[in-house]
Amino acid sequence: MSLAPVSAPSAPSAATSDSAGPDEAELLAFVRRIAADDALVASLPLDPEGRTWLRLEGPGGSEAWLIGWPPGTGTGWHDHGGSRGAFATAHGALTEHALAARIPTEGWKTLELADGVDRERQLAAGRGRAFGPHHVHEVLNDSDSAHAVSVHAYYPPLPLMRRYSRTGAVLRLEEVEHPGEWE
Fold first, then answer.
1. Dist CA 25 CA 39 (whole Å)
2. In a domain, 70, yes or no
3. What is the tally of structural domains in the chain?
4. Nearest Cα to 3, choosing from 110, 80, 87, 83?
5. CATH number at residue 82
6. What digits encode the pLDDT tens for the residues 61-109?
7. Domain-located, residue 176
8. Can you spell out the DSSP letters for the chain?
9. Among 20, 26, 121, 179, which residue has the fewest nearby CB atoms (within 10 Å)?
10. Domain that holds residue 43
């Protein structure tokens, strides 16, 4: 299966138009506000070997995290199980590689991605981004010497995360994680 780039936003899905929880703009405003809280960001213990995190209370029942990224660490390719979200860099810089294509959630193990679906963003301190429920990406601290810290929020709280591997244009579903397996 090949996937073409998304050229225009699609109509909002039920998940993105859910008025019971915060929308993408509200999540983005929250993560930016928390990323600017120097005292909270400084309270996160940083480990030179692995990522560290602190669970936060997000707005409107959302799930939120303050995450420390040692040099050279990243998430690997993943999605957020249908939750919408946002993240902002509080300290250092992060790189996001994302797919501008809607990836089906069921019925496949390997996909061949079409040309033009790759997007890359550099998110220095103070920069953030929001995304919808079908977002597939990886986030990296490309620095070889400096930690980064970021704030993330998701609504509804993450029901699962799908983890992928990627070799060239081939995306492969590797595993599905449930809450408690990443905390």
1. 24
2. yes
3. 1
4. 110
5. 2.60.120.10
6. 999 999 999 999 999 999 999 999 999 999 999 999 999 999 998 899 9
7. no
8. -EEPPP-SPPPPPTTTT-TTS--HHHHHHHHHHHHT-HHHHHTS---SSS-EEEEEE-GGG-EEEEEEE-TT-B--EE--TT-EEEEEEEESEEEEEEESSPPPSSS-SEEEEPTT-EEEEEEETT-EEEE-TT--EEEE---SS--EEEEEEEES--S-EEEEEEETTEEEEEEEE-TTS--
9. 20
10. 22-100+117-158
Evaluate whether residue 135 is within a structural domain: yes
Gap between the Cα atoms of 17 and 59, Å rounded: 16
Amino acid 19: pLDDT:
58
Distance CA 32, CA 113 (A): 32
Residue 140 in domain: yes
pTM, entire model: 0.88
Q: What is the reported pLDDT for 176?
A: 96
Q: Is 107 exposed, middle or buried (0-12, 13-18, 19+ CB in 10 A)?
A: exposed
> How large is the average pLDDT for residues 135-158?
97
